Amino acid sequence: MNEHEVQLRAAHDLVSKLYSQSASYTNLIMVAGYAGVIAFWSSLVHRLPQVIFFLAGALIISSLVIFIVWDLFKMISSNLAIRRIQSSIEGAQAGPETMQRFQAAIRESSATGAKLWPWFMIPAVITGVGGGLVLLSYFVFRLVEQAI
After folding, report:
1. CA torsion 66→70→76→78, rounded to 10°?
2. Alpha carbon distance 14, 81 (integer Å)
3. Fewest CB atoms within 10 A around its CB: which of 26, 84, 97, 115?
4. Distance of alpha carbon 16 from the chain centroid
């Protein structure tokens, strides 16, 4: 294996590890957050006014759907990018040109995800936090009401 092949393999391994670690951590935090909020929300079905219950539920579930759509998009676009990268370097001789094509394909894939990320994550965060704030506001209102 020559120097360029070693560099190409190292770059590929690094990208794979970074993406895997980042995606795993984000998914763990999001799934744990959704599970906790949905469990809490569903346990309040008989304690909340219907309007509050349904408003909070609609916001939380909207956030979850947006997150799932984003994750599906990432999965599909990542698989397509990997196929493009493989086809661009498959059969090519190891060398600077192959490494440049590999790096360009990685940059293009990352740039697309970075451009689209705010369009999914901002609405997911706003609706998820909004649902939590609806529940919190109701509890604060009830607490103040009982204190008076």
Report:
1. -170
2. 16
3. 115
4. 16
